[in-house]
Amino acid sequence: MATKRPRKRRGHIEERENGTFRAIVSAGVNPLTGKRLVLKSDPVDDWDEAEVELTKLLSQVDEQKHARTNLTVLELIEKWCGVKTSHARRTRQRRDQLIRDYIAPRFEGVKTKKFAADPKGSVEFLEGYYALLQSCRFNNVRGTNHTAKGHVCEPLKNSSVRAIHFILTAAFNQGLKWGYVGTNVPALADPPAFDQPDPDPPTAEELAPLMNEAFKDLDWGLFLWLTMITGSRRGEMCVLRWTDLNTTRKRLHVVRAGDQLPGEVIETQTKNKQRHHVPLDEFTLELLESHRSRCAEQCRQLGVELRADAFIFSGSPDFSTALKPNTATQRYRRAAKRHGLRSTRLHSIRHYTATELLGAGVDIKVVQGWIGHTSAATTLKFYVAWTDRVDQSAAEALAQTLPRPSYENHQRTRPAYEMLAASLQEAIACGKYPPGSELPLSRDLAADHNVSVGTVSRAIGELKKHGFVEASQYRRAKVLHKPTEPATTP
User: Fold this and answer.
1) Which pLDDT score, from 0 to 100, does residue 241 have?
2) How far apart are CA 278 and CA 281, in angstroms?
């Protein structure tokens, strides 16, 4: 009979020189280095605790929930960033800034296997970290004294905290696909809720003086006018070309956006790759044709011809380069401050366009396509501030559908406790309850007048307030000799 091959031990408990114990488990081969991967628990004080840790580690290996490398969290994020080349430039800039300022200081040196070793504790740590950032963005900076004189706590916006959460979640998810980690622990944590959108667009009355001033420079005035008409983003407006204007169909095709780099503006896809085609009115078409004539005349004076695909708005005399988005933003901010507008953001004109279109009764799906949103829900949630005019028209429409009440000969109905107080006051004045006597029990008064005991208590409180009785808890009300205040009219 063949002898059984002895089973290879997968783990053991190590007694350390300082008298503590540690569980050690073999977890296969590191896919990066090809070396044996060993999991080690934190040191514990006695053998029984070490056996518990050994069981946990063996369970993680059996369920494939252990980290398969000694990668740190930052190393895993770096590998994930290396393959996410599809992110737009500004998205990458914001992502790298969040990693540098908030993730790196908190997770420096932290191993991914620490997350897998205690998932519940890791989730608690992450949610606590998010809460700290929501209380003060400087909580990740070492040595920050939040009680120091002159320190002002600045909460990090929920949207930024959510972005940090999704960076961690995406990196661990990629690590799970690659076999570096066994569990996407950050995905178990709950990020903060979305910031409640509160758009505050200017009114037509507020924009009127700003627009009058803007049209002193016809190019700048047309830029703002076209921004309001189309509801486009600043980057989309800055790279509009004359080839995007279809005068026959009276439409403007917004098909690209501008991204400002040092010294140049590059053309990119629109946000969410949504193109929108905006119908134009006759007045706007006249403004554009007049502007094209001025551009052509300016080019002739320079000895060149206006190209068919020239930019409608440009920072160069021959309209060969796009207008810089930051230039438009700064110019509008200065004008908005001069005129005392609530919002000095150029983007607020986009809010204004959406609000006015919906206020005029335009269908929500039409507005969605007009301003280039992926869904009608986005239009309603983020870009519509209901103006007073819209609220008033809604109130008037609702009022017309309701039956009109008749309020002639209307008299105020007195509450039951006031009527009971007046009745008791009259009874005291007529001598039914002489000074020094006690009023009946509350339950008896309630039965006689067909009211609740609570109504009796309120009525007696009114009599006490005007000095007709003396009353306290658990005692019957006693009629006073003389009111402390003038009597009320029954």
Assistant:
1) 95
2) 10
Q: Which amino acid is at 152?
A: V
Strands 257-261 and 264-268: antiparallel
Per-residue model confidence (pLDDT) at position 242? 95
At residue 296, the pLDDT reads: 94
pLDDT at 490 over 50: no
Do residues 368 and 376 make contact, with C-beta atoms less than 8 angstroms apart? yes
What band does 472 get if pLDDT is binned at 50, 70 and 90?
confident
- Rounded Cα gap, residues 359 and 380, in angstroms: 12
Burial of residue 281 (number of CB atoms within 10 Å: 0-12, 13-18, 19+): exposed
* pLDDT at 441 exceeding the cut of 60: yes
The SS3 call for residue 101 is helix
Element (H, E) at 388: helix 388-401
Structure tokens at 167: 């960076």
CA-based nearest residue to 267, from 244, 250, 301, 284: 244
Cβ atoms of 132 and 139 within 8 Å: the answer is yes
- DSSP secondary structure string for all residues of 185-240: GGGGSPPPPPPPP---PPPHHHHHHHHHHHTTSHHHHHHHHHHHHH---HHHHHT-
| Sequential DSSP letters for 255-314 | --EEEEETTEEEEEPPGGG--EEEE--HHHHHHHHHHHHHHHHHHHHTT----TT-BSSB
Token code pair at residue 282: 């006759």
Residue with tokens 């040196």: 109
Q: How far apart are CA 428 and CA 450, in angstroms?
A: 20
**pTM for the full predicted model:** 0.60
Q: Which residues of 122-153 are buried (b: 16+ CB within 10 A; e: fewer)?
A: bbebbbebbebbbebbbbbeeeeeeeeeeeee
CA–CA distances in Å: residue 270 to residues 7, 36, 229, 240: 62, 49, 18, 12
Both structure tokens of 201: 């667009």
